[in-house]
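In this section we walk through a basic example: taking a raw amino acid sequence and producing a predicted 3D structure, encoded as discrete structure tokens. The instruction is simple. Fold the sequence below.
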Amino acid sequence: METTLRRTLLSAIVAAILIAAVAGPAAAHHSFSAFNTTEQKTVVGTVKKVEWTNPHIWIYIDVPNSQGVAEVYSFEGMSPNYLERRDWTRTTLKVGDKITVTFNPLRDGRNGGMFLNGKLTSGKVLTMGGAQ
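The resulting token sequence is shown next.
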């Protein structure tokens, strides 16, 4: 009986270690540390590309700088599954759409960040909580 108890205890310990090893990277995946969540910025541009992929969508827009030269801004969004349940589709944003994007900027200063909301020229407002 003592051997069975030891095997059960050992199995439980190994299972706990495996769960902890997998949970660490999963939790890190959802970190917002790359974004300055205390600051919001807004840019106006034209949709260049939308990557409707897991685990998060990416939206790329061309934003003219002070010299009129387009700079690409990239924005991370929620997962397609999450957005589909909130009335987004693959075609909610199309290449060529004019959009005003409000976002939490990247901490490293690169162009882009975490998409908070966008407003199309039609007046339609898009949020990560759903299309409105």
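Looking at the output, two observations stand out. The first helix runs from residue 2 to 29. The beta strands are 41-51, 58-64, 70-76, 98-105, 112-120, 125-127, 130-131. In the next section we compare this with other chains.
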